[in-house]
Amino acid sequence: MSYLSIIILAIALSIDACVVSFSYGLTYKGISNALKLAGFTGGFQFLMPVIGYFLTGFVKSYIEPFADWVVFFIFTYLGIKFILEAFEKRKAERLCIDIKCLFLTGIATSIDAFSAGITLSLYGYHILKPAVLIGIVTFVNSIAGFALGRRLKTFPSKWLEIFAGIILAALGIKAVIF
Questions:
Q1: What is the pLDDT of residues 114-159, one digit of tens each?
Q2: pLDDT at 132
Q3: Is the whole model's pTM more than 0.90, yes or no?
Q4: Cα separation, 134 vs 160, whole angstroms
């Protein structure tokens, strides 16, 4: 997998963390809060593809003949999910920034990265380089989202989610076409 493909994947996967960080930025101040949030989201975005990658090893021989189609369905599903979620009405909630909430936020924003780890395993790629890039891009995008939230009180995060969904669906389609 080329660096460009990994970076595009990392950007798409980091959109959830960016949007969540944006929401936190609307509520909280301080670089320490931004760094804590980015550390958790980036850390989990690094860890989850690694977990998905190694868990796939147990069933890889059974699904490897269908790898292109598995990749297609995973990424297309995630892409459509992102787009549909962009149109859902969300209930305004007060965000918390304690360790438990940050831990849960890290997990929630990295579930899609778990699927990416499965995909990388099916294609036979090594996991370290993609996982590190995904974690770094997510960390940076989380900081950027937090900063944007602090600066802009009304930002259409819906369009970021739609954009991420289109990227993920395109990666799924690319798996079966090329």
A1: 888 988 888 888 999 999 999 999 999 999 999 988 887 655 667 7
A2: 96
A3: no
A4: 17
For residues 135 and 13, the answer to whether their CB atoms sit within 8 Å is: no
> Which residue is associated with the tokens 């579930």?
111
The answer to whether the beta carbons of residues 107 and 113 sit under 8 Å apart is no
Dihedral sign computed on CA atoms, order 74, 80, 84, 85: positive
| Best CA proximity match to 47, nearest among 127, 124, 142 | 127
Neighbours of 86 (CB within 10 A): 18
Instruction: Give the length of the chain.
Output: 178
Task: Please state, as a whole number, how many other Cβ atoms lie within 10 Å of the Cβ of residue 19.
Answer: 24
Residue 82 CA to residue 166 CA, distance in Å, equals: 8
- Can you tell me the distance from the alpha carbon of 105 to that of 33, in angstroms, rounded to the nearest whole number? 13
Q: Which among 72, 71, 45 is positioned nearest to 60, based on CA atoms?
A: 71
Q: What is the mean pLDDT of the chain?
A: 82
Residue 42 has which token pair?
A: 């980036």
The DSSP symbol for 109 reads T
